[in-house]
Design a protein that fits this description.
This protein folds into 2 domains: about 1-55, no CATH class; about 75-285, Alpha-Beta Complex (Fumarylacetoacetate hydrolase, domain 2), CATH 3.90.850. Strand 18 (about 265-270) and strand 19 (about 270-280) form a beta hairpin. The protein has helices at about 40-50, 80-85, 160-165, 170, 220-230, 280-285, and strands spanning about 1-5, 15, 25, 55, 75, 95-100, 105, 110-115, 120, 125-130, 145-155, 155-160, 180, 185, 200-205, 205-210, 240, 265-270, 270-280. The longest helix has 11 residues, at about 220-230. Helix content is about 15%, strand content about 30%. The protein is of the alpha+beta class.
Length: about 290
């Protein structure tokens, strides 16, 4: 299934993408794509429903973040060797873990808002993993059973705040709009192997990133097992698993960063495509 959340920010309703391409309202069956709704039994109940018996959602509706009630938004840094090397770092010997603020979460087609004072805002296409049930001390060979589904994530990063000064990754990755999720939560059964997905990103039509999850240093089962030893993972927690080479910071001869008016387009095989226009915070304030 491809599950989504539609409507104004903060007022999203659950929906699914039917086989005929229409959006169908799931609100008679579930309150939200969040929490207990992400358990395998609840997902099976939704899967058994006939989409054609559900009301159609207008195609013009805003598509919000594909999961609600996110408790933790966890990032994995430098998880592709080519990306680590392009930034001047050695590939890590264990996962680099950081947090993104849940207030950074936005819809797949919402704008990227450049914060005041930001001058080095960068892009990162990533495979997102959405937890479906409580996970503690999970073994790698059981880890995928704790996954509700997968989604596209753009791990937007302000490099000046991430790497400058005291070098705080969470600070550099947590501005409002810096975590587009979706458009869909694609349930686990539709993705045969999360380690065999292509992913890409372009800015104004120029392809900067073109990689595969095959190149991850630490695969999804290992990451879930590793994280579950350090913290309890709850339904709705989102893990963004790292990005391949091609970020703006590493462009040569000079870094390239996002500018107002540009368009970022990105996707992960089988999980859909995102598109964001880059705007300034002052534009948000002006337009209300």
């Amino acid at each position: 299934m491809k599950l989504l959340r539609c409507g104004l920010a903060g007022q999203e309703r659950p929906a699914l993408l039917a086989a005929d391409g229409t959006l169908r309202d799931l609100s008679p069956l579930v309150d939200d794509i969040a929490g207990r709704a992400l358990d395998d039994r609840e997902l099976a109940r939704l899967r058994d429903a006939d989409p054609m018996q559900l009301a159609e959602v207008p195609s013009s509706v805003r598509i919000g973040p594909c999961v609600g009630g996110v408790g933790k938004f966890i990032g994995i840094g430098l998880n592709y060797a080519d990306h680590a090397r392009e930034t001047g770092a050695e590939p890590p010997t264990e996962p680099v873990v950081f947090m993104k603020a849940t207030s950074a979460i936005s819809g797949a087609f919402d704008p990227i808002v450049l914060p005041r004072g930001a001058v080095k805002t960068d892009w990162e296409v990533e495979l997102g993993v959405i937890i479906g049930r409580v996970a503690r001390y999970v073994e790698p060979d059981q880890a995928l059973s704790f996954v509700a589904g997968y989604c596209v994530v753009n791990d937007v990063s302000e490099r000046g705040w991430q790497l400058g000064g005291t070098g705080q990754w969470t600070k550099g990755k947590s501005a409002d709009s810096f975590g587009p999720l979706g458009p869909w939560l694609v349930t686990r059964d539709e993705i045969a192997d999360p380690q065999d997905l292509s992913l890409w990103l372009a800015v104004d039509g120029h392809r900067y990133q073109d990689g595969s999850t095959r190149s991850m240093i630490f695969d999804v089962p290992f990451l879930l097992s590793y994280l579950s030893r350090h913290m309890t993972l709850h339904p709705g927690d989102v893990i963004c698993t790292g990005t391949p080479a091609g970020v703006g910071l590493a462009q040569r001869p000079n870094p390239v960063y996002l500018l107002p008016g540009q368009t970022v387009r990105l996707g992960v095989e089988g999980l859909g495509v995102q598109e964001q226009r880059v705007i300034t915070w002052d534009e948000v304030m002006r337009d209300g």
